[in-house]
Amino acid sequence: MAQRLLMGNEAFAHGALEAGVRVVAGYPGTPSSELIETVAKLHGEGSAHGVHVEWSTNEKAALEVAAGASMAGARVLFTCKQVGLNVASDALLSLAYVGARGGCVLFVADDPGPISSQTEQDTRRFAAFAKVPVLDPSTPEEGFAMMKEAFELSERYGTPVIVRPTTRICHASTFFDVAEETHARPAPAEGFEKDPRWVIFPKRSFEAHGEINERLPRIASDPTFTRFTVVEEVPGEGERPTVAIVACGVSAAYGREALAALQRRAAEEGMELPPYRFIAVGSPYPFPADLMEQELEGIERVIVFEELDPVVEEELLKLAGARHLPYAVLGKLTGDAPDRGENASDVIRECLLRFFATESPDLASWAAALQPETLRFEGPLPVRPPVLCAGCPHRGSFYAVKRALKELSKQAERAGEPAVQAVLCGDIGCYTLGNAAPLDAVDTCLCMGAGITMAQGLAVVEPQKKHVAFVGDSTFFASALTGIANAVYNGHDVTFAILDNATTAMTGSQPHPGTGLTLMGERRAPIVIEGVLEALGVERIRIVDPLDTDASIEAARDCLAFAGPAAIIFRSPCIQIVAPEEPLSIDPVTCTGCKRCITQIGCPAIGFDGTVAFIDASLCVGCGLCVPVCPFGVIGAVGDGKGESA
Amino acid sequence: MIDILLAGVGGQGTVLAAKLLASAAASKGWKVRTAETIGMAQRGGSVTSHVRMGCQGEAVFAPLLTPGTADLIVAFEPAEAARALPYLAPDGLLVTASSALQPVTAALSAQPYTAIAVLDDVRAALASQAPEAAFLVVEEAPILEKVGASRALNVVLLASALAQGRVPISIEELKEAVSACVKPRFVAMNLEAIDLACVSE
Ligand code: SF4
Ligand code: SF4
């Protein structure tokens, strides 16, 4: 055993490896990605023996790889972010019926806020829909224990089990005792055993539905599952509590923090909080109804803190209705807890003050007098949204397409035709950031791969416009292929701008099929994007370097003018995976302050001091994109006479 | 309990700074939790790292600290110092770098953003609302130039903050954490930056 400072996701990887996981497959997505990266790292270092780990092409592929391995009796782990489960849902819903043999754990990370996601969907809800148990950790330590227990539960009941942490659990670090070496549990010697139950079929599904209905109530009262629902009682003077605080996931940690702060404050001021019961629900589905009924005996008011959906709140209401329990439930549905976004200790503290205030007039006046003590800053502050990195090649791709559209438009106007209008469909990845000013190059963004096909729908209704779909290389393999086949098959007049930067950049530079690198350390022949496009029947394909502005504009014009599906592959590596070049500079004497470099491309390395533009040498990577943008030619290398700094 | 907030711009190195503090605290036998901003905001957006230390053996529950409770805020950029202000405890210490990173939004707008103006506003806010708080503006540029690496910003700021003696972690303990957490070829450069930061205090 060794004590290590580990991020939640790293610790969960250790937990799964210690449980003997044999196959780990997933698709990157914040906040889940570090789990697989950790397994791959430990495998690469030679301390995780016998494990197979892979980034699959997308989540559906990953879950199916895991399902097959589980049927052969191996312990398997699937990972994704919440919206990734949507992609894998086809497999999941059937898998719940077919069942698991080797322990089958789905690690699905939710993102309240959302901080880096399209939706605030709740995987606990998804678990209930798919009829599979879900565990919800309140701390990284608890998540570590859950990862191990989930494999046991899965095997005991033959069901997939979801472990669903949220961002603040995934990305919180603390110290863990972890094994120095781990060994994957060998799959049973008899291997995959043929059995009709592995084949989903209407008659079998009806039977399996019955098995699911029978096993869920058993899981709901299995102590290995319900031990993650923890009850604490804070006594007053001999009284039994009549109020309860129920919290799920990380809200339990915030709740404990808020209660401790209130207790401290009350004690300082000679007040006493009423006695209460605190219940941290770590096993939300199937809901541990018997346990909760028992723990809520004598309780008159319950307040529920949970992020995303009111899952436990609704379960408590259902329980009250079904068993005629006399408690009132406060939470999201009643406006007593925030209806969305992240919770936090101070938010819960405010809710608790209101909750306790109704217990006695003394408490009410005390609570009303408490002022939050936070400093305010009232001066003007620049907003700082995320942006494409300085030197990001995507900037060149967006710039070239916009310039090409402008040139086509001018050409049309010269010929007495109406100006060219265009809709730019974006997608999921760093390049979603092309939406920000001044690029302003993302008109739609829906889900992985959607731009490719949405552009086609737009083109049907608005054939007079140009329709461009931007897609990254990793997203291309994950979910653009069927959409491109659709365009060729149905003859849609759209242009695909494929941003090939040789990595999955947004989630932290993971390899993908186009790179040929695998997590097992083998290097395979990369799948070539132009080869795929050609095979799918795309007739016009151009490949350019997005940092070569003239060539990029020419290629974009060519593809935009082509009737039928056409593709431009903008190929240049993400600056996070290559060494930077020497920074450029702007000559402050000859810079006219026209701000063209800023208003055209918006590189974060270029600032404006009120009179002239300047380049921040600590950010500039010397990509050169800004050089031809300057109409006065004053941007250049330090010392080449152009970009001479004073 | 010691609560520390690190506030900066994605890519400036707040994550490593949090790791250094956690490692220093753990070597003293304290309980520690840290939490990071990972994801979209890392691309040049505002980011924070939260470091919570149970310095008297007390349990640390939540990964995030609460507004009004930070004993120390280390800001990597003046506007981020201002943004983080609501987190500062009334008697806390706010340490900030002095060079501004202009966001594209500011470069585009008619009103340029300058570090001096924001720092003046922060100073005024502290004087009127938290007279017991302390404020330190670090002149990091000459030190970073001397060690030849802008990535040493995090240790320069941490060393300047710890040298104030308000948080019971010594410069020696910070150096040990650097040796334990930083890639071997960067250790010497970071240690030099720490020494320079302490001298200029
Ligand atoms: S060369 Fe120009 S566009 Fe490229 S990173 Fe430097 S300032 Fe930005
Ligand atoms: S990480 Fe790579 S792809 Fe993402 S914004 Fe930066 S340079 Fe562009």
Which CATH-level-2 architecture of the largest domain in chain A? 3-Layer(aba) Sandwich
Share of helical residues of chain A: 25-40%
Number of helical regions of chain A: 20
The most extensive contact between chains is:
A-B, 67 and 62 residues
Distance between the termini of chain A: 58 Å
Supply the helix-strand structural class of chain A.
Answer: alpha/beta
Question: Can you give a write-up of this model?
Answer:
The complex is a heterodimer of chains A (646) and B (201). With 646 residues, chain A is of the alpha/beta class. Chain A is globular, with a radius of gyration of 28 Å. The termini of chain A are far apart. In chain A, 53% of the residues are buried. Chain B has 201 residues and is an alpha/beta fold. Chain B has a single domain, classed as Pyruvate-ferredoxin oxidoreductase, PFOR, domain III (Pyruvate-ferredoxin Oxidoreductase, domain 3), CATH 3.40.920.10. In chain B, 43% of the residues lie in helices and 21% in strands. Chain B has a six-stranded mixed sheet, sandwiched between helices. The chains are: A alpha/beta (646), B alpha/beta (201). At the A-B interface, β1, α7, β9, α10 and α13 of A face α1, β2, α2, α3 and α4 of B. β9 (172-178) of chain A pairs antiparallel with β2 (31-35) of chain B. One iron/sulfur cluster binds at residues 388-389, 392, 394, 430, 501, 505, 574-576 of chain A.
